[in-house]
Design a protein that fits this description.
With 167 residues, this protein is α/β, with parallel strands linked by helices. Helix content is 40%, strand content 15%. The chain has a six-stranded mixed β-sheet with strand order 5-4-3-1-2-6, sandwiched between helices. The longest helix has 19 residues. The protein is globular and about 30 Å long.
Length: 167
């Protein structure tokens, strides 16, 4: 079983595409659009990493980062932003990326932050799955963009959480 990533972002075609890419790379994705529900899931579930989408406003992102780090500082946080100038304070997030950049950068960022276990030997999602995700990236983007309402019937750990495995 791969790593579990909690993705906190408003549900949109871009977020669905990111989640599909992560799942194809071997990650289990829990997608949530409600910050309060995200905290509940973080407290009650095994989460290996957190990704903040750029659709969550700056103050909420700061508060969530502080809360998550207070609950478990070992869980890495990757923050996506619309521009490279939008930065969160050092120490609250482990990696910051432009959300409009190459989606493979997110895979690399997660691989990097999840391998930080002292000796860098943590296992990430299988390389063959990451290769498949890279090959499927463009087709995933096209599929999500053609979705009429951007929503899917998904398994949910909470009322606002979505897992993309049922897309």
């Amino acid at each position: 079983m791969g790593w579990t990533v909690l993705c906190v972002s408003k549900i949109s075609p871009a977020q669905i595409t990111r989640n599909m890419i992560l799942e194809r790379a071997g990650y289990e994705v829990i997608a949530i659009d409600d910050p309060g529900e995200a905290v509940r899931i973080f407290k009650t579930s095994v989460v290996d990493a957190v990704v903040f989408g750029d659709s969550i406003n700056g103050e909420q992102r700061l508060q969530l980062a502080r809360t998550f780090k207070a609950l478990n500082s070992a869980v890495p946080i990757v923050a996506l932003s619309k521009t490279s100038g939008t930065q969160m304070p050092a120490g609250l997030v482990d990696q910051q990326l432009e959300s409009l950049g190459d989606p493979h950068m997110l895979l690399e960022a997660l691989k990097h932050v999840l391998s930080r276990d002292g000796d860098g030997s943590a296992q990430t999602a299988p390389a063959r799955d990451q290769d498949r995700a890279s090959q499927d990236c463009n087709s995933s983007a096209a599929s999500a963009s053609s979705s009429k309402d951007g929503q899917a019937s998904n398994k949910t750990p909470g009322p606002n959480a979505r897992k993309n495995s049922d897309l």
